[in-house]
DNA sequence: TCAGGTTTGGACTTGCAGGTCCATTTTTAG
DNA sequence: CTAAAAATGGACCTGCAAGTCCAAACCTGA
């Protein structure tokens, strides 16, 4: 089903996705018209529909995919290397820094509500992202348990689930209130708590 | 600036808001047309613009207000009565139950992304909701500290901030993945942790 | 160099949803 | 009872943004 694109074609397609993603991040999903994307990426309507035959919906899905990947890419290699407390703190700082920098613009929040209903695939996409994210955290906890840095009786899965939820909520609150406090509180208290349990182990 | 509405007028206005809210909850903000609201509430376009001169934007804001109020109303009286562990657990159950029941439909998530950008007031509205919510939690923690059920050294503000974030994230994850696990994990682990600290106090 | 494809540009169509308007009915108040 | 104001119904307008179409430019390989 994959259409044949030349190298040039692939490049154009990628340019459109990246440009659309940027536009959406800056102005919000529902404020972005195809024309805006065209203007930004220097493309024509013909091209848009050439590379995304199903139109806006398909483009939005591609953007969501792209943005979802970015989220995890941005946390590498910290995320997949949670093997010591300094590493955990580095990851913590990375998260704070990143979300502080991008401020009120969350690429996925909008896409969740918007695309979520339109494209059935978008839901699965976000779910997949969350799943990968949580898996990485779980693995980090497990590793720390193997070295005795976290108490063995901690349920890694549940702890990771709670932490992921906290992070998502923290970001959500950053989005709506503009304050990073919640995210910080979640990360610091959670890490603190994971450490505390093992002090005696 | 408040226009003069008769009793009948107020009733109609309220009917529109409630109907629109329901419609939005069921089908999502961007899928709801004014006509849908008209059909559901048995009103005409004339009425819509009579009661909401600024059109859709004003209506959406009113809906957001209405929904925000509902969120807290739904948790009363549990939320403002977190004075014993059974009360905390009752609140926990209430949250789980409520969000489990409404499933994938969150009234505010959509409104956040959507209305957030359009109406400047919507942002403030959500912020206010979060603030009230968090304040209630903080007060609950403080009360438990006063009775010695929670350790005095716990920072009530931070703990409440983290918990609120966890709840929001838990709901968000319920929305995107369909699983309630995250919300449960947050609530249970948080409460467990608050209790643990004071066992010896 | 020529023939097949792919890529590109942009004019044109179309549907629809938000918003306007006014004529009619109902209510309120004096 | 009556006049002014509010409530209602629905026809109509309008703009805009998605999507269509096709012709021109371009690559690419034999």
From TrEMBL, chains A, B:
Residues 10-70 form the HTH tetR-type domain. InterPro entries: Homeodomain-like_sf, HTH_TetR, Tet_transcr_reg_TetR-rel_C_sf, TetR_C. Residues 33-52 bind DNA. Keywords: DNA-binding, Transcription, Transcription regulation. PANTHER family: HTH-TYPE TRANSCRIPTIONAL REGULATOR LMRA, TRANSCRIPTIONAL REGULATORY PROTEIN. The keyword Transcription regulation applies. This is TetR family transcriptional regulator. Pfam families: TetR_C_13, TetR_N.
